């Protein structure tokens, strides 16, 4: 046996039976932990192994992003695509306009372009139609993805390239729709996954010639923020070879759990992978409603009639049940199909009306399949506008809750008093209520909707501070202990991986993040800047991010793994 023994300034284990340690030893071959404790205890478990002293470094379990879309995130944010979200250097629509003009002037005339992250509320822009986009891109194909992931905008060149008869889109698929003019022709807008796929796929395929490299850059990006495990929440079968390539390289930085889109006919198919500890299929995913940033959440409350909301063309609502992507009958049928297969179910839902319907459907399916009281860990995702009492009901049903602090970080100042009354907006993302209900929670950034920064999520959870520095909804503040759990052992529990990762204990994988400073010693309002990520380890192997990219380029050069763009583009509905 070969082993590694690391000594650190401190080791935060996230193991309640052994919360702090000074050293960790692990088997270099299996990547599993042999001992966590004092140097002497680790030397006894790994005799003869030299101690590697990391000095001032603090070790923790690697952060876990329990809800993400890594492959497509890379494809739509990394070059040759353009990431135009407000917090990536384009705070105003004028910044986006300047980029569009520059790109159209400088690129070859036949080069299609993809832009991701247009935000109608934050950038204050009306919903663009093909006529609007034609002003910037009169001849080249251009697709602009909404920052929510729930809409795509495209110009007339895209409509023509798609060869829709008489410029009219096909019939609306279940749970999605196309924007149409009064004569039935496309207006250059598609809503929800299946319609976005149909409209944007051919252009994405041509615009991004090396999808694996784009996906690998997003893997690198996540690892740079300390993440060692993530998920693909909208998996389709034709993504499998791509993800096998990304997760089986020697320096791959991430484990991956797959959740199959319920809209696929083969959503219930079993999946075998070379190493299930690195890549496994875990569940089935649905979207109950839409996004607060485009006005498609199933809520009992309306938007405020303010100039900001009006400019973004957000319907005031309340959206109620008409914003559901599925009827209750359809939801029941999907659950009846997949629950007996043993899959963990997952629902995207943002509105309180939507969560009531989801919990009703969950309760009936759990009852019908004798799963109440079992360790099923079915999931709900986001829950931005949901009520505190709903979280208690979720706990009673055994439902886990994945929350997105990014919604509060970047939109919190608009949510509180501009989009909604303060009693709703200030309480957006009620992680305090969830913790008090005893819920198993995780935090996520929902790539590519926001940068995957766990330390910023943690800072926000313990301060309720928005991007502007304002504190809103202080009653939802949670402890640092609980916030760290949401990014480690809580997320591992949600992924059914808490027996492998999420805490540092004997027998688990040595997935580590190196931090420059103990988070407990940082100023809470500056935690994300005072604490730096200095590196990650996966299965006891120090990750080499440059080496990983070289390995992926070798795969693409050999053309041994292909990615089906048709399926990959379908995965983006965050």
In short:
The protein is an alpha/beta fold and about 575 residues long. The strands form 3 sheets. Strands 1, 2, 3, 4, 5, 20, 21 and 22 form an 8-stranded mixed β-sheet that branches. It has an 8-stranded parallel β-sheet with strand order 6-13-14-15-16-17-18-19, with helices on both faces. A 6-stranded mixed β-sheet has the order 7-8-9-10-12-11.
Strand content: 15-25%
C-alpha geometry: globular
Distance between the termini: 44 Å
Give the integer mean of the pLDDT values: 95
CATH superfamily of the largest domain: Metal-dependent hydrolases
Q: What is the helix fraction of residues, given as a range?
A: 25-40%
Per the CATH scheme, the topology name of the largest domain is: TIM Barrel
Query: What would you say the CATH architecture of the largest domain is?
Result: Alpha-Beta Barrel
> Biggest sheet: strands, sense, closure?
8 strands, mixed
CATH class (first level) name of the largest domain: Alpha Beta
Number of strands: 22
Domains (count) = 3
Q: If helices are DSSP runs of H or I spanning 4 or more residues, what is the number of helices? A: 21
Structural class: alpha/beta
Low-confidence stretches: 565-574
Please, what is the oligomeric state?
A: single chain
Q: Cα-atom Rg, whole angstroms? A: 23 Å
Descriptive account of the structure:
There is one protein chain. About 35% of the residues lie in helices and about 20% in strands. The chain is an alpha/beta fold. The protein has three domains: about 5-55, no CATH class; about 80-205, Diaminopimelate Epimerase, Chain A, domain 1 (Roll), CATH 3.10.310.70; about 210-555, TIM Barrel, CATH 3.20.20.140. The strands form three sheets. Strands 1, 2, 3, 4, 5, 20, 21 and 22 form an eight-stranded mixed sheet that branches. An eight-stranded parallel sheet has the order 6-13-14-15-16-17-18-19, sandwiched between helices. A six-stranded mixed sheet has the order 7-8-9-10-12-11.
């Amino acid at each position: 046996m070969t082993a590694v023994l690391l000594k650190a300034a401190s080791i935060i284990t996230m193991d309640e039976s052994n919360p702090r340690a000074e050293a960790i030893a692990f088997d270099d071959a299996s990547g599993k932990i042999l001992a966590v404790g004092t140097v002497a205890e680790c030397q006894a478990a790994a005799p003869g192994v030299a101690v590697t002293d990391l000095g001032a470094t603090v070790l923790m379990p690697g952060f876990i992003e329990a809800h993400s879309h890594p492959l497509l995130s890379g494809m739509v944010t990394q070059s040759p695509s353009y990431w135009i979200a407000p917090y990536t250097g384009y705070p105003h629509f004028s910044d986006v306009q300047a980029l569009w003009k520059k790109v159209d002037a400088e690129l070859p005339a036949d080069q299609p372009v993809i832009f991701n992250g247009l935000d109608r509320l934050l950038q204050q822009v009306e919903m663009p139609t093909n006529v609007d986009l034609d002003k910037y891109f009169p001849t080249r194909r251009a697709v602009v993805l909404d920052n929510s992931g729930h809409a795509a905008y495209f110009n007339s060149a895209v409509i023509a390239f798609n060869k829709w008869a008489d410029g009219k889109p096909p019939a609306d698929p279940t749970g999605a729709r196309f924007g149409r003019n009064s004569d039935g022709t496309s207006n250059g807008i598609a809503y929800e996954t299946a319609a976005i796929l149909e409209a944007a796929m051919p252009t994405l395929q041509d615009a991004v010639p090396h999808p694996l490299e784009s996906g690998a850059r997003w893997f690198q990006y996540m690892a740079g923020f300390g993440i060692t495990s993530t998920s693909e929440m909208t998996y389709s079968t034709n993504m499998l070879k791509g993800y096998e390539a990304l997760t089986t390289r020697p320096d791959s930085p991430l484990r991956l759990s797959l959740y199959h889109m319920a809209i696929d006919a083969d959503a219930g198919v079993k999946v075998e992978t070379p190493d299930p500890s690195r890549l496994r299929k875990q569940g089935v995913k649905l979207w109950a409603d839409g996004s607060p940033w485009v006005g498609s959440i199933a809520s009992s409350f309306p938007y405020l009639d303010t100039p900001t909301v009006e400019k973004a063309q957000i319907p005031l609502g309340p959206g109620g049940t008409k914003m559901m992507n599925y009827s209750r009958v359809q939801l029941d049928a999907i659950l009846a199909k997949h629950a007996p297969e043993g899959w963990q179910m997952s629902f995207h839902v943002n509105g309180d009306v939507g969560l009531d319907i989801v919990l009703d459907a969950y309760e009936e399916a759990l009852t019908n399949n004798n799963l109440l009281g079992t360790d099923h860990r079915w999931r709900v995702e986001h829950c931005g506008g949901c009520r505190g009492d709903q979280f208690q009901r979720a706990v009673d049903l055994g439902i886990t809750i994945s929350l997105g602090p990014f919604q509060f970080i970047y939109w919190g100042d608009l949510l509180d008093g501009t989009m909604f009354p303060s009693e709703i907006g200030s309480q957006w993302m009620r992680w305090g209520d969830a913790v008090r209900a005893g819920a198993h929670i995780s935090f996520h950034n929902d790539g590519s909707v926001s940068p995957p920064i766990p330390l910023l999520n943690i800072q926000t959870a313990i301060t309720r501070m928005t991007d502007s520095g304002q504190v809103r909804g202080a009653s939802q503040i949670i402890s640092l202990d609980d916030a760290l759990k949401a990014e480690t052992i809580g997320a591992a529990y949600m992924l059914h991986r808490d027996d492998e990762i999420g805490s540092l204990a004997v027998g688990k994988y040595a997935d580590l993040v190196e931090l420059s400073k103990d988070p407990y010693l940082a100023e809470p309002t500056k935690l994300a800047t005072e604490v730096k990520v200095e590196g990650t380890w996966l299965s006891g192997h120090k990750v080499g991010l440059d080496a990983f990219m070289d390995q992926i380029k070798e795969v693409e050069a050999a053309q041994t793994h292909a990615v089906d763009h048709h399926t990959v583009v379908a995965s983006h509905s965050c």
